[in-house]
Design goal:
5 helices, 10 strands, alpha+beta, about 20% strand, three-stranded antiparallel sheet
Length: about 200
């Protein structure tokens, strides 16, 4: 019926998209009776039809990506949407910006690296250009390793694309994206500096 073809040959071009709104308590299994003043957490399909919690958790476990919704606690209306997996456009931007693994001293090409959330997604980090950077698999694993606090590397973005690494010994390393385009300077300031240098030079007469 969808392809106007009595065979199944036309079905290969059709991709179903299942949208399910799953409150966090349902994902964590805390979907019991509501507390005072708070409605019970219910997973729903895009058309509003409710589904049972177990089915919702199965669908969530099989999903290739999730979209996180930020809602108003009073009205329940969606305020913002964030996805864990960056879009193809954002991936291209990050590859062009980073060029290689951003860990100090690592030259692994960006195409062979993972895209890391500088502030972890689980801790409220967003999927945007100022919270993402390429790290090779080895350094990605090292950054996320559950080590004792004193042995853990700390990473933050002081500005979009500028990463500050703090080693377990307290040493700080700053890594800036490589320059891939022309850098413009204020010509008037540069020329003033040249004239000033010429005026300070001894006269040949």
């Amino acid at each position: 019926m969808l392809t106007a073809d009595p065979t199944d040959t036309g079905l290969h071009g059709i991709r179903a998209e299942v949208s399910v709104l799953i409150p966090a308590p349902v994902l964590t299994g805390d979907d019991g009776a509501p507390v005072a003043g708070v409605e019970a957490a219910v997973a729903r399909l895009a058309n509003g039809a409710p589904i049972d919690p177990e089915t919702a958790r199965i669908l969530a476990s099989r999903a290739s990506s999730w979209a996180r919704l930020f809602t108003d606690p009073l009205t329940g209306q969606v305020l913002a949407v964030d996805t864990y997996t960056p879009s193809s456009q954002l991936k291209r931007l990050l590859r062009a910006r980073d060029q290689h693994c951003r860990w100090p001293g690592c030259g692994q090409r960006a195409r062979r690296c993972d895209i890391d959330h500088t502030k972890p997604w689980a801790e409220g980090g967003t999927t945007c250009h100022d919270n993402l950077a390429h790290l090779c698999r080895r350094h990605h694993t090292l950054k996320g390793a559950q080590l004792a606090h004193a042995r853990r590397w700390k990473v933050r973005q002081t500005s979009p694309g500028v990463l500050e690494f703090t080693s377990p010994t307290g040493d700080v390393y700053t890594d800036e994206p490589p320059h891939v385009g022309p850098v413009f300077v204020d010509a008037s300031v540069e020329h003033w500096g040249e004239r000033r240098a010429d005026s300070d030079a001894p006269s040949p007469f």
